Amino acid sequence: MSQVRDTIQHVTIVGVGTQGSMIAFRNAVYGKEVTGYSRTRTSIDKCRSKIRKWLNYYVETGRLSQAEADAAEQRISYAESLEDACKNAQLVVENVPEKLEVKQEIFRKLDSLCPPDALLNSNTSSLLMSDICAFVSPERKALTFSVDHDDPIRNDYLEMMWNPSTSEVTKQAALSHYRTLGFEPIITEREIKGYSINRVWRAVKKECLYLWAEEYITPSEFDRGWMMEWHTNIGPFQLMDLIGLDTVYAIENSYYSVSRDERDKPPAKLKALIDSGRLGMKSGHGFYSGYDPETGNLVTK
């Protein structure tokens, strides 16, 4: 597939939580005009604060000049109305909780509120776009695709997946845009639950949760061994903390709801951890304790 010029300049992020704020940051740093949408002023304020800290870090480490950081921050605006957020969108990145009915309702609204040529994608780990966009118009379905971010700030990895309705024009536009942002997309050509690389990660994650829940090994000990063996700077348990344990639980439940196989059911111990308020990086504590929820840095273990 030949590369086309990226013409997307205005990106709307629906949901500015942990990953939504990172995606907004990435787009702004690479010169895009960004509108972040949330129903609550509190979420918007948290997003603004996190982005400011990340920009300061980029300045301190020499990745951006102060003028470049200030310009990136100026490129981000916020809206508490979905209609306002979508009116100029050329690409919408939906980033709401991993629940099919929630995403379907958002896409139903996006279909009516966005310009007719706006691309729509879902930042989803386990749900199928053909299900998410079940209630949008046929013309809009051709403009849809899925993405699965790992860590939009710290690395360039990204999984993308087409669905049966994705047009060739949409595929080229999507690839061009994400490559402009410095990503190196890994493409799953045919729709399958969980993408390709992410399905393998899910098998690792599932086994890690089992070993932890049954008290065979501690998260820190497993991560230490994983990083030594696979030469990574983060292990599976810390990665789950970064994703958010409530999101991890929702993803595992998504697989279980389809298979009804007890082996796919997330352990009760994970639910108990979530119910105690340990959600991972975003709450400051998960499998590990001592995250700075603003920057995601692990202060203590």
UniProtKB/TrEMBL annotation:
Residues 10-188 form the 3-hydroxyacyl-CoA dehydrogenase NAD binding domain. InterPro entries: 3-OHacyl-CoA_DH, 3-OHacyl-CoA_DH_NAD-bd, 3HC_DH_C, 6-PGluconate_DH-like_C_sf, 6PGD_dom2, NAD(P)-bd_dom_sf. GO terms for molecular function: oxidoreductase activity. Residues 194-289 form the 3-hydroxyacyl-CoA dehydrogenase C-terminal domain. Keywords: Oxidoreductase. Transmembrane segments: none annotated. The keyword Oxidoreductase applies. Pathway: Lipid metabolism; butanoate metabolism. Belongs to the 3-hydroxyacyl-CoA dehydrogenase family. This is 3-hydroxyacyl-CoA dehydrogenase, NAD binding domain protein.
